[in-house]
Amino acid sequence: MDSDKDKTLTKVTIDENLRRVYEETLEEKVPERFVALLEQLRKRQEQK
Fold first, then answer.
1. Could you give the maximum distance between any two Cα atoms of the chain, in Å?
2. At a CB cut-off of 8 Å and minimum separation 6, what does 5 contact?
3. In this structure, which long-range contacts are made by residues 2-9, counting pairs with CB atoms below 8 Å and at least 24 apart in sequence?
4. How confident is the model at residue 1 (pLDDT cuts 50, 70, 90)?
5. Which of the 8 DSSP states describes residue 1?
6. Which ranges of the chain would DSSP assign to H, the alpha helix?
7. What CA–CA distances, in Å, run from 29 to 2, 5, 18, 24, 25?
8. What mean pLDDT do residues 18-41 have?
9. pTM value?
């Protein structure tokens, strides 16, 4: 049973640390170049 608790605690700790590390990256704006490419793809999909 302790092994399951340890695994859960480990997963929670990893999750919290990953969120902390990548939080700033998640808040960054998508570069305009990628926004334009996504718009082009969307338009192509609409034409099909």
1. 57
2. none
3. none
4. low
5. -
6. 2-26, 32-47
7. 43, 38, 19, 10, 9
8. 94
9. 0.48
